[in-house]
Amino acid sequence: PSAEHGKPADGVSSVIPGWFSEISPLWPGEAHSLKVEKVLFQGKSDYQNVMVFQSSTYGRVLVLDGVIQVTERDECAYQEMITHLPLCSIPNPKKVLVIGGGDGGVLREVSRYSSVEQIDICEIDKMVVDVSKQFFPHLAVGYEDPRVTLHIGDGVAFIKGVPEGTYDAVIVDSSDPIGPAQELFEKPFFESIAKVLRPGGVLCTQAESIWLHMQLIEGILSACRQVFKGSVNYAWTTVPTYPSGVIGFMLCSTEGPPVDFQHPVNHIDEDEVSKKSKGPLKFYNSEIHSAAFCLPSFAKRIIGSE
Ligand code: SAM
């Protein structure tokens, strides 16, 4: 059965027998489908339906409430961009917080930086962590870094307990604003993030698709422009298995040392230590970093430049 309007799907919304179709009120009238070789896990946590299946062309796939979160084949695009767009924009990031991101992929990318001393992650659903460790070793490897501390809980509550000015960077790797992630797209949450960032600290948050969610993006943009007095920028990239094949990121900085997101000061794609320990980057590089801020006219008119 597919999702009735406004309610998350039950997990397996297969329209064509043997295929998983991603049906959601967040992208009405369309659905991306992947051929299912085998369902590897199905569960219901306190927060959401959790499913893992082996697809025929994208490797293993993690699905939460009927929405694709990561696939083995194209996760590199998302994890590398959501991590390196902020962290390559500031010199020597030391303390980083990840909210959401329970699969561990962002942790894997943050741990590439030898300047980083502390990586905190707050993921609401332990089932996602456990499922990732069992089925997605190339993502969950992020948890093996000794600098990582895992907090299981709601990011909204967690951030309230963090002293002001603690972090150089916060990365919000959240699911969509239906279900447990809803508050992660609202102004009060952005205000609490601004408080825990140092002056000139940076936020990067998952910011949906310019093809599907311009209204939602406008709302996030106006909230961020009220809260972040450094700069607010929108970047985007291609991830084939996300709805419309693209996903965006909101890049914000607090007042303080200026941050020019469009011209990276770090070049993690050339860092030999990172390449040796974690393998070469599959997607991100400094050119695609700068290009990510170039928008099509229909989006530029609404999002505008800085
Ligand atoms: N790459 C994916 C995307 O762009 O949609 C996100 C992947 S990650 C699996 C999303 C994570 O956010 C999930 O594990 C979910 O449990 C977590 N999450 C949702 N709401 C949350 C909240 N309020 N606090 C902490 N984690 C949350």
From TrEMBL:
Its EC number is 2.5.1.16. GO terms for biological process: spermidine biosynthetic process. It is an enzyme of class 2 (transferase). Residues 17-254 form the PABS domain. The active site is at 173 (proton acceptor). Keywords: Polyamine biosynthesis, Transferase. GO terms for molecular function: spermidine synthase activity. Pfam families: Spermine_synt_N (PF17284), Spermine_synth (PF01564). PANTHER family: SPERMIDINE SYNTHASE, SPERMIDINE/SPERMINE SYNTHASE. This is spermidine synthase. It comes from Musa acuminata subsp. malaccensis (Wild banana). The lineage of its organism: Eukaryota, Viridiplantae, Streptophyta, Embryophyta, Tracheophyta.
